Amino acid sequence: MNVTITARKFKAHDTLKEFIKDEVSALVKYNDDILNAEVILSYQNVKDSIKNTEIILKVPGQKLSATGKSDDFKKSVSSTVEKLARQLKKIKSKKTSKRNDKN
């Protein structure tokens, strides 16, 4: 799976990039048909400096996306990955229920 990381208005550290790649690559256990993932990092420079993460997954026939906000990029990425994991599980359960209906 190809993981593209875009940091808006800042340069992401290599440790953050590795963390993101590890987290996103873990989604393969829910669906091994993931074609690629696009991760967009940004922040809002308000009082608490809110970190935003958006992840867009491309699977055959679909595009899944999720966003997360936190005071830390790692927390934001983790929560976004959890949301995508739930979406992938839902897709997988729909596929298996359709197969079972046919039998």
Secondary structure elements and pairings:
Elements: E1 2-7, H1 14-25, E2 36-44, E3 50-59, E4 62-70, H2 73-102
Parallel strand pairs: 1-2
Antiparallel strand pairs: 2-3, 3-4
Characterise the protein shown here.
It is a single chain. The chain is an alpha+beta fold and 103 residues long. The chain has one domain (2-102): Ribosome hibernation promotion factor-like (Double Stranded RNA Binding Domain, 2-Layer Sandwich). 41% of the residues lie in helices and 33% in strands. It is built from two helices and four strands. The chain has a four-stranded mixed β-sheet, covered by helices on one side. Helix 1 (14-25) links the parallel strand 1 (2-7) and strand 2 (36-44). Helix 1 (14-25) packs parallel to helix 2. The chain is elongated. It starts with a strand and ends with a helix. The relative contact order is 0.17. The mean pLDDT is 90.
pLDDT < 50 stretches: none
Q: Supply the number of structural domains.
A: 1
Q: What is the number of strand segments?
A: 4
Strand order of the largest sheet: 1-2-3-4
Q: What is the name of the CATH topology? A: Double Stranded RNA Binding Domain
Distance between the termini: 32 Å
* CATH architectural arrangement: 2-Layer Sandwich
Count of helical regions = 2
Can you describe this structure in just a few lines?
The protein contains 2 helices and 4 strands; from the N terminus they run βαβββα. The chain has 103 residues and is of the alpha+beta class. The protein is elongated and about 55 Å long.
